[in-house]
Structures
1.
Amino acid sequence: MTPFKGPIPGANHTSDTRNYPWHRPPDIVGFDEGVEYLMKKLAEPESTELTFSLLQMDMPIASVCNVMLRQLVSKGKIGIDLAILLAGPLARYIEIIANDNGIKHEMGVENKNRIAITPTMLKISMGIVDDDDEEPVVEAAPEDDSAGLMAPPGAEEAVTEAATETQDEMLGLMENEEEEQV
Amino acid sequence: MKFEEAVKKSIKKFLDGSVPEETDAQTEGGIYYTPDYFDAMEESLKETSDKE
């Protein structure tokens, strides 16, 4: 398909073609209208039972909202933008009815990656160092004087050049000379 | 941003007392279901349950 043959952005909202529900204009477009719909929906016995059951299974309210809103978007009831806007009122309403019915719940929007503020952290950031907080000074381990087999030669052990005779002996040249002399 | 993250962010903002500003401005008379509305609702439910 060439770029010019494709549909223009938003063409799905003006089309009468029956395709996926979320491709058609949503049924609810107003904020207050959406909140009213959600409150009525939650008042239904099946929805109430399901919501309370999920909360009793330690599911956070944010996740319950996520599931409910996704379902409404997939059915074409609300648009995805409105779904995000409705998340706040829906979560608050669920919290209120859960409190009213004595159901333990967790909102699930707390940032668990947050670094907790501790007195030590504050002291460090303010540059205050207590005597107790000072790190103990670790004495340096004495250097090992004994040179190992693979130890590098030190300054004292400067390589001295062997005498010419010794070198010839090591190379086996001395023997040849002796043989020649014999 | 994923839908789940957007939902969490929206909830957090609403609980902090924020309302969608543009929606509020475009709605005649402003948004009805504000955080204050839900606070009042919670209070009235508490009072009702205390009386019972």
2.
Amino acid sequence: MSDPLLNVRDLRVTFETDEGVVRAVDGVDFEVRAGETVCLVGESGSGKTVACESITGLIPDSTATIDGEVVFDGTDLTDCSASTLESHRGGRIGHVFQNPQDALDPVYTVGQQVVEAIRIHRDVSKTAAREEAVALLDRVGIGEAEVRFDDYPHQFSGGMKQRAVVAMALAPDPDLLIADEPTTALDVTIQRQVLTLLADLQEERGMAMLFVTHDLGVVAEVGDRVVVTYAGEVMESAGVPALFDDPAHPYTRALLACLPGRGDPFETIGGSMPDPTDPPDGCRFHPRCPHAVADCERGDHPAFRSPAPVTEDGPDAGPDRDGAVEPDHAVACVLYDEDHALPAALEVADD
Amino acid sequence: MPSSDSDPPEFTRVDWDEASSGRRRPSARTAGFALALLAVVGLLAYDLTVAPEETLPPLDWDVDRSGWFVVVALVVLARYVFVPLLADRDRTARHVTAFLDRPAGVLALGYLLAFGLVGVFGPELFEFTYAKLDARLQPPVFAGVNASVADGYSCVGPVADGVCRGTWQYPLGTNYIGENVVEGLIGGMHIAVKIGVATAVVMAAVATTVGTVAGYYGGWVDDLLMRYVDVQQTIPAIVVYIVIATLFLGNVEGVSDGGTLAFVLVFGLLDWGGIARLVRGEAIQRRSAGYVRAATAAGASDLHVIRRHVVPNSTATIVTALTRRIPLLVLAQVGLAYLALNSVRPASFGELLRVSLEGRHMPWYVQWWTSMPAVVLLVGLVVACNVFGDTVRDVLDPREEVR
């Protein structure tokens, strides 16, 4: 397999605050291959957004310390010049933020802002950029784009603003789109339209997407692979079908149980996120984990293991308990090592 | 409604190696701005070297050194205020409509425009007359003064029951050496406009730069700049001006000869602290706005973000702060001139008031017409500036539009 487009290794982001050092992201690894959609899933405060923004160094140096490696297409973005970073932002890596209400400058027309997004990276004439901007707005589903080009953001609805923001992010033809909860601020019908739009555009352009969300329902719709994070650490990463059919980590299971239509109605995960300045030892989820054992409270974050159960189907599906991580499904949970018997509740369910 | 085009346009493929080559050409605005500045410099050079004594041919206009400064200030004003307004006609039209809905603002603008036009063109349009000593202290038309108040008083108009009546020859009367009060007022307005515009442009440039840089970058840059502002604000510009003017600029007949240029430079370069603070606060807010994050994420440089997003979104604050500052500057100059610490030609309101309140030949309250019009014009200026600033703030504030 060729190198992934984006390879994040041991990313650590810490903030100095009055209450102490906040480890917002604490040793996160994941990769995005060309053309695929990776979803970063977790509760609010699990460090998803910080992880995404540190990829292109959007978190100002003055407040945060970023460690680790972010290799994008052969360039380490944590260790490169400001101009390289600027040409990657937007140009190679597009960004769509959560709140479209705020993402457009009230001083300019929507069209001018799309033109600006085009002209930041390309030396094209204003007329050419305008034509392209109208085409882009039309493509993202803004009707009468020629007319709406001259409208100001306050004349757009939330869904239309997000479409315009998507158009701006895609204008310079990025290879990777980081979508940070792009549908959270939108109502359900508009959410679906924007998701469909993103999926269509991705297919059309063969672009990779890093999709941040707390909504597993959205993951099922758009994702190829999922990275589940909790309190700044990765708990489990898997292909979308594997995650939904065979969730390994107790946290993933708990998250899935919270989805309407699965598990009990109105199920929640008891307790709350740990104090970010003083996370618990061992697995950070253990205080809330129904299956926690004594080993969970000790040591560092558990190592990644393949959760594949012993089967007689063939060598490929066999267990790999020697520590080598099977790349497509990995879980950080002590229950999957050789010393522990898997609780019955975590065995693969047949439903 | 999305397009029903069966073959939707695709996003353009970009060849990045090709696209990122070469630097951006300067925009038409930058080029025009540079050309205009060059033209001013060229005219200045012509005026200084080739024809220092003569007036500029087309306008028959002899520009002094502070005049050149005002011309440069006007070019800057045109580049950063009028060109953007004209370039964005839709938006301007919307603002104009909103502005016209506010009668107080319209009235204030009308006053300021009249004041400005008379101030700029008045000295060219009105033929200035020589003072006539025998026509001194004539009352304004429709008013009268007891002719026996002063010795050797001669009345130009009719005298009835010992009361000298005013005439249309001197609509607002004359002062103690027989100068037409109207001419004095026009001169005072000329100085007020010159001082106000030139100083405001210098101030706006410095304050906006310092304020946005401090607010946008934060950290030690912010600390350094704002501590400097603290220091600067402990020494009022007026004190610096008095020291410089009295010690170094010489004097003419006992009046410090710190002219308009010295005033503009000292106040323009030292009196912007308060505005910079306001702009900084604005920039801190803007820094975390979604569109600034979006622009950064789209690869815009800091300079681009500041120029395109931070400053335009702070316009309302800058304009309001300036409209509050301009009348204070005019008043400062009036005060200095009144105290004989600043000498400008033509005489400013301050000098008019000083001479008038000295009460030569008749007490100041008897020759009220020599001081009252200047006071009324100044009060009007202060009120109009403030009302105009408030109105512009209401109209410009981009946040109003979001709601």
3.
Amino acid sequence: MALNKEFVGRVFGPGEPYEVSRVKIAEFAAAIGETSELCRDKAAAQRAGYPDVIAPPTFAIVVAMASTTAMHSEPGLGLDYSMVVHGEESFSHSRPLHAGDVVVATTTVESIRVVGAMSMLVTATDISTTDGEHVCTAKSTLVERGK
Amino acid sequence: MTVKYADVAPGTEIPAKSYRATRLDLVKYCGASGDFNVIHWNDRLARSVGLPGVIAHGMYTMAQAGKFVSEWAGDPGAVLEFGVRFSGMVPVPDDTDPPLGGTTGGATIEVSGRVTEKLGDNKVAVDIVARSGDAKVLTRSRAVVRLP
């Protein structure tokens, strides 16, 4: 089923604030095999000039997903998540996320393209602190394979 | 041992590294990321939607490439821009009773990179390629990294 192009330009969020914790950063770092002490040891992170332990660059997807999932499950969009593969992803950081950050995410539907039985959905999710400081923009292309 | 901005030039290769991915890694990544899509942990359901079996999260593979760059730079916070195209799947087979002579399962993701451009402010652009088996799994992958 083709995606509903009327969703282009729609904005979702900001959702509930997300508080970045040391424990979650350590869990994410362990899951991807990232061994840097900057993700685990506050003193080491501070010596490197950060306020607290920092998240690996792709951690932003954890925050972004909470926002995009709400959008993907909008019934009017017509997305069949079991047929979705990830096409492209990019992160543009103003600075790394660190423990203690309280951030909100806002997702904008940038484009929907239908090619034959496939649909391509491009979204941009801005992640900013609750004080309005931009931290990261995550751009995703999802491909819904045709049946 | 990390690299210095002064020591790199366009064409500088980042030594390739290989990372292992097992079913346990994918289960950990499901929990850490919150992405519990069945295709990352259930062979039966993965096959039912036309996949060869359980495949790694694209974001897991991207994270391996991110780790590759941050290990080179010595700081995960140095990776300012990072974008990839997911050009192939990474099937991660289960093990088959290794104590009884079966296979140990898992997949290998090999990542390589090259400096393409020196930007101002100690930043460099790097191109990254990730392969698994015979397939390129990340292409058109580029990062902007700040080096010491």
